[in-house]
Amino acid sequence: MVPALLAPFLSGFLLGGSLIVAIGAQNAFILRQGLLRRHVFVLCLICALSDALLIVAGVAGLGTLVAQSPLLITAVTVGGAIFLFCYAFLAFRRALHPDAMKVSGKDGASLKAAVAACLAFTFLNPHVYLDTVLLIGSLSATYQGAGRVAYGIGAVAASFVWFFALGYGARLLQPLFARPAAWRVLDIIIGLVMAAIALGLLSRLGAT
Fold this sequence. Notes:
78% of the residues lie in helices and 0% in strands. It has 9 helices and no strands. The chain has helices at 2-21, 25-36, 40-59, 62-67, 70-95, 111-123, 126-139, 146-169, 180-207. Helix 1 (2-21) packs across helix 8, helix 2 (25-36) packs antiparallel against helix 9 (180-207) and helix 3 crosses helix 7 (126-139). The chain is globular.
């Protein structure tokens, strides 16, 4: 029985991993917090559990329901774009003052603010719903019973592995980020990524 479940588990793990690894708002935020060593465990856990919740919902059939609600998709898209533009602005502003950023971890948002931002990056980003609820959820229909459960577990496992690897692996880059110039480049990249995602969301909304 176990070998028979290995294939759907690996399928879910590889699909989930390929979707999560692509650079995006969540990953940029976790990378930055990992470099600062600020609330890494809590934020990685929130991202992984949030993905798990959405994946389970998608595998259970919620993806079909969400796809039939254009109003909900529009509201989330606009809200997510506004939030991403705001965060991009903050990243560009930080890039103007890189000397204020230290790798020691003394800088960074409070736990409450960091958790709020993390939740916003997750649930105000329509791409998260497209990847977890719709795509992973719809493809789970190719499996039945225990195979479908194994597929979902594989996708969830990929999320946990990636976020914790990113959050705690970021500290390996700390020697590089001992220089303010490196923080300037990182924040510029983060700002560009956030702005590009926001523009992509709005352009996709206009095309519908």
